[in-house]
């Protein structure tokens, strides 16, 4: 007697969509936009290839959904840190930098997807979407910290160093994180009444 196939589990579209995005993030982190096959994403998400096409339209559209998901995770980390940091008297940029470093330590996929997003900017559609998300993130940093343009640029440049270090899985507590904290303190405006 042959075994009957396991019953198919039906999930709400939003749940399935989230599972596909999470699976796609892992695949895109490993092989980028050009190197990732939808079949690999489908296998990881335990859905059919046609289901992915039905939900997202194309590999590029799915990649852009993953990029949005990653930028949203970074923004959420910044917002929650800034909210918790309001009672603290230290530099807000340093607190956001620490939150970013911790996020990348917990999930290296974030660093890899960000680097693949920048690398895929040869595609004009990807470039425009990534640029929009990047600029929105810079505005979020400005809004949360009150930093001037130089402070935000320094923060983003330091973040790129931390992103590369995380993507390369460099060992231990990195001195570049200490250097980054020191650098961010240098560009943080002195607010009267803070020590």
From TrEMBL:
Taxonomy, superkingdom: Bacteria
SUPFAM superfamilies: Homeodomain-like
DNA-binding positions: 37-56
Domain HTH tetR-type: 14-74
Pfam families membership: TetR_N
Keyword DNA-binding in record: yes
Keywords: DNA-binding
Secreted as UniProt keyword: no
GO molecular function: DNA-binding transcription factor activity; transcription cis-regulatory region binding
Protein name: TetR family transcriptional regulator
